[in-house]
Amino acid sequence: MTDNSAQSDDLVSTSLLAKIGAVAYVLWGLWHIRVVIRMFQAAAAMEDPALQARIFQGAFHILFFAVFAIVVAWWIARNNRISYWAQLLTIGWTEVGLFLFFMLPGLFPWWPSGWIGPTLWIVAVATTTVARVRA
Description:
Elements: H1 3-44, H2 49-76, H3 81-103, H4 116-134
């Protein structure tokens, strides 16, 4: 194989990894929009207005992160360095919070759906990191 074809193959695989990571971030965002809808529905049924407002606020914040992940994925697919770091830090922050405050204390079960968000995030981080290192 010539140097040009090896270089071309490496660029294709780097581009493919960035796109896989972008898709994982979009799926992460869509999954969390589903979570937000459920949170709004649960909060609407609550009788305590302070608790209801707090759940609405939490859902509103998660909605921001979900939309952020989906929008920034467009640049992630192009292996953009700034969007890589923005996604890594922003979405990573939300996943660490979920793990520390819900998963570790046992307030949120891993099964049947607790593993979906973290798994999508790990796939996104792994593939985009390899793509950035190769860039």
